[in-house]
Specification:
There is one protein chain. It contains 14 helices and 14 strands. By secondary structure, it is α/β, with parallel strands linked by helices. The protein has a domain of 226 residues: Alpha-Beta Complex (Spore Coat Polysaccharide Biosynthesis Protein SpsA, Chain A), CATH 3.90.550. The strands form three sheets. The chain has a seven-stranded mixed beta sheet with strand order 3-2-1-4-8-6-9, sandwiched between helices. The longest helix is centred in the N-terminal third of the chain and has 31 residues. The chain starts with a helix and ends in a 5-residue tail after the last helix. The relative contact order is 0.15.
Length: 417
């Protein structure tokens, strides 16, 4: 065999080992999740649930209703919008008559000095919950199970060394749109196993925006949300700042759900390309990600060996291992149905992600909604086409204290602002 064939064979071995490790980590996670929520302290901590909102989506009301139905004795809900013109402002107001015995409040506006719009709203919300022992924040498109809050708070108070707890998440596509299906497959078969595997092998140094439950005293010690008001990856840095203060981060046994907003293949491509190019600012040389792309290396091996029997057999084994790992993640961990069409689309998604990885090396422009940015080598986002009458903006994420894994940056670039 030539050098390309040996390189592909080595990468296939790494990929299969990675798939096996993800399955083992998932099995451990499922065992922990099956035990039920950990017991709460004798006096349940008072929890303030913070939900910064921006715009309406078809799934927003259902997502917020799932939070209203959580089973927990001492909780209050705080929603935040930038202005009354935001249509999302009407949703909390519509919830009040239905949940008359719940504490629900709406804050309008944010800290004008904060570049990060989501964090600007969080800064405005915190003073409204001065009695809270724990702040639980999550992105607007997240939905949860009834035992979610008992699990998260129980996990947080199971160890005094824990400063905050975060959650992995699964994706449920809202329909048959190609972009949403591809994004859901990425989350369920790439992000979710990476998050669970990372927690199994090393202490977490970051948090996911899907859920961050942080003790109020820890938030105060790190400087409040003001400490991350100008950072792009605010969820990552909240966790990282807590670790720098000597606290640990836990991954809760709760698994929350996101409904992908991508509709077209272009939406999926640009979202993933934005993540890949942003991730490069933290780790310019990132071979770990590409080395786990089994189907790509299987194809390369067959091409290098001219489709001989050995290469075809090894490639088939690599693809089978990938499909087995993906189906286990979707059916057993995400608890979602999986069809033969999904498995076929999983391979298409894998090759797309490989193509996006290589494309990310060839430029620095990214698209975020209707806005376009250029990512500079030091991590700044410079807006190329600012809205009318609006000055260009830039966001500078500083270098983290520890390398940011793909899963953390993916989550950091997913949340609403």
């Amino acid at each position: 065999m030539n050098f390309a064939a040996w390189a592909a064979l080595g990468a296939i071995c790494i990929s299969i080992g990675y798939y096996a490790a993800c399955v083992v980590a998932a099995w451990r996670f499922l065992r922990r999740a099956a035990t039920g929520p950990r017991p709460l302290p004798k006096i349940a901590p008072r929890v303030a649930m913070l939900k910064p909102l921006h715009g309406l989506s078809p799934s927003l009301m259902d997502a917020l209703l799932s939070f209203m139905e959580v089973d927990y004795p001492r909780k209050e809900y705080l929603f935040g919008v930038s202005s009354y013109e935001d249509p999302a402002a009407q949703v909390p107001l519509a919830l009040k008559p239905r949940y008359q015995f719940e504490s629900i409040s709406l804050t309008v506006g944010g800290d004008p000095t904060a570049v990060n719009r989501k964090v600007a709203k969080l800064i405005r919300m915190v003073p409204r919950a001065a009695r809270a022992d724990v702040f639980v924040l999550s992105d607007a498109d997240i939905s949860v199970e009834p035992d979610y809050l008992r699990r998260v708070v129980g996990d947080l108070y199971a160890d005094d060394r824990l400063g905050l707890v975060t959650c992995a998440y699964r994706a449920r596509p809202p329909g048959s749109d190609l972009g949403a299906r591809l994004e859901a497959l990425y989350i369920n078969t790439d992000f979710m196993p990476m998050a669970i595997l990372a927690d199994s092998f090393e202490p977490l140094h970051y948090a996911f925006g899907a859920t961050i439950a942080i003790r109020s005293k820890v938030l105060e010690e790190i400087g409040g949300f003001e400490a991350v008001k100008d950072l792009l990856a605010d969820d990552f840095h909240l966790g990282n700042l807590a670790v720098q203060r000597g606290y640990r981060i836990g991954l809760s046994s709760a698994l929350v759900t996101i409904v992908p907003g991508e509709r077209t293949f272009s939406d999926f491509w640009h979202h993933q390309l934005r993540w890949a190019r942003t991730y490069r600012t933290v780790r310019p040389v990132s071979l770990g990600t590409i080395l786990t792309h089994g189907p790509f290396w299987a194809l390369l091996l067959m091409l290098a060996c001219r489709f001989d029997a050995f290469s075809v057999g090894v490639a088939a084994a690599a693809v089978a291992a990938r499909l087995l790992m993906g189906s286990i993640m979707i059916r057993r961990v995400a608890r979602l149905p999986v069809s033969l069409a999904d498995l076929g689309l999983l391979l298409v998604k894998d090759f797309c992600i490989t193509g996006i990885w290589f494309t990310s090396l060839l430029g620095r422009n990214v698209r975020w909604g209707e806005r376009e940015f250029k990512v500079t080598p030091d991590g700044r986002l410079h807006e190329l086409k600012p809205a009318a009458n609006a000055p260009p903006q830039s966001i500078t994420p500083p270098q983290p204290a520890s390398p940011m894994p793909p899963s953390a940056m993916q989550d950091a670039t997913h949340g609403s602002h």
